[in-house]
């Protein structure tokens, strides 16, 4: 079980135009990734999903808050002592081609981490070969035909399977899949998502899905927990089915409305519109972060910031003063 409490992260922007400006990438995020469970982070570009995923995988520092791994608080450990904890949280990136060394065969790719593992656990070369074949079989690849090949000789879907196989060499507790199917041919995406689900069931590994695509987040499984993130704040959180069927935050509603087939928006007609704009996180608001885009805002929303909580009548946690079921449609703002 991985837990986070009040995680904050601020980046100082570099580059000529934004130099010195601060971006609050995460504003006090709480999360739980149960053992063997599935969690998805969803939200538009720049909302902080990857930053949070990287923090969870130990690849990024954070300014405030606390991460706990199986009951051990990371703040109680020295940097070096944290490594064994974070090693079992493996990140799978969106581009399987750049994740693999093009000059190495699949055998060589798997050999390096397995050699380390063998050393740690007192195993021999025979074990390494067996384990290489085993992790490839686990991801649905035929070791006999794949081991001697180079990445460019495989399809995108097969390459992503190799990346997952490599992650399995360390017996991970959590796989962090950051837009893991977005660069893969549409016809192969479902196979990868089904594989992650299968690994959860067979190995008890937890999966964290990071995606801007609601359709993808549906595949995390019925027992999955969905976190909707807006400008570094979790604005709605609950069981994936509940959030999709019954969203109460206007931002979640606007995200979902991009897939009319899921939401029954055959006749958008006179429904309120939530404008979609490019975000840079630098426009600070005193009140609700979503107020400037929200067609349902009231005076209170401009001055007070709602926190994530459960209120009567709303089925899941939300950060909205006026949570209710509404049908909205998202539309790009003019000029964007
Ligand atoms: N290394 C960095 N230096 C400065 N700013 C950063 C850095 N990494 C992220 N940011 C900023 O932090 C914010 C959150 O970025 P992040 O990559 O986590 O978003 P995201 O939700 O993963 O977006 P996307 O869907 O485009 O991948 C953005 O405003 C981004 O510009
Ligand atoms: Mg990202």
TrEMBL record:
InterPro entries linked: AAA+_ATPase, ABC_transporter-like_ATP-bd, ABC_transporter-like_CS, Oligopep_ABC_C, P-loop_NTPase
SMART domains named in the record: AAA (SM00382)
Keyword entries, A-Z: ATP-binding, Nucleotide-binding, Transport
Superkingdom in the source lineage: Bacteria
Location of the ABC transporter domain: 2-256
A GO molecular-function annotation: ATP hydrolysis activity
Keyword ATP-binding belongs to the record: yes
GO biological process: peptide transport
Alphabetized Pfam families for the sequence: ABC_tran (PF00005), oligo_HPY (PF08352)
PANTHER family, sorted: ABC-TYPE DIPEPTIDE/OLIGOPEPTIDE TRANSPORT SYSTEM, ATPASE COMPONENT, ABC-TYPE DIPEPTIDE_OLIGOPEPTIDE TRANSPORT SYSTEM, ATPASE COMPONENT
Official protein name in the record: Peptide/nickel transport system ATP-binding protein
Taxonomic lineage: Bacteria, Bacillati, Actinomycetota, Actinomycetes, Streptosporangiales
């Amino acid at each position: 079980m991985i837990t986070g409490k009040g995680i904050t992260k601020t980046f100082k922007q570099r580059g000529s135009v934004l130099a010195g400006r601060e971006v609050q990438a995460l504003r006090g995020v709480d999360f739980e990734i149960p053992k063997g469970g599935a969690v998805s982070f969803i939200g538009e570009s720049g909302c902080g999903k990857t930053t949070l995923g990287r923090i969870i995988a130990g690849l990024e520092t954070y300014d405030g808050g606390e991460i706990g791994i199986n009951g051990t608080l990371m703040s109680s450990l020295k940097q070096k002592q944290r490594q064994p904890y974070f090693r079992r949280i493996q990140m799978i990136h969106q581009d399987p081609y750049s994740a693999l060394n093009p000059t190495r065969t699949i055998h060589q790719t798997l050999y390096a981490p397995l050699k380390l593992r063998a050393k740690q656990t007192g195993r021999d070369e025979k074990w390494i070969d067996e384990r290489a074949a085993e992790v490839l079989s686990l991801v649905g690849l035929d070791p006999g035909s794949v081991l001697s090949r180079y990445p460019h000789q495989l399809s995108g879907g097969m390459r992503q399977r190799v990346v997952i196989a490599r992650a399995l060499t360390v017996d991970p507790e959590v796989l962090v899949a950051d837009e893991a199917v977005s660069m893969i041919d549409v016809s192969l995406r479902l196979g990868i998502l089904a594989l992650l689900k299968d690994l959860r069931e067979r190995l008890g590994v937890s999966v964290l899905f990071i995606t801007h695509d609601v359709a993808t987040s549906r595949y995390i499984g019925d027992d999955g927990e969905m976190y909707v993130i807006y400008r570094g704040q979790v604005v709605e959180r609950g069981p994936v089915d509940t959030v999709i069927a019954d969203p109460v935050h206007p931002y979640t509603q606007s995200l979902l409305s991009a897939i009319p087939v899921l939401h029954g928006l055959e006749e958008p007609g006179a429904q309120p519109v939530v404008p979609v704009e490019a975000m840079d996180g630098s426009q600070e608001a005193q009140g609700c972060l979503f107020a400037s885009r929200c067609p349902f805002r009231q005076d209170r929303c401009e001055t007070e910031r709602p926190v994530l909580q459960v209120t009567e009548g709303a089925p899941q946690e939300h950060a909205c003063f006026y949570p209710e079921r509404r049908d909205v449609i998202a539309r790009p703002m003019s000029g964007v």
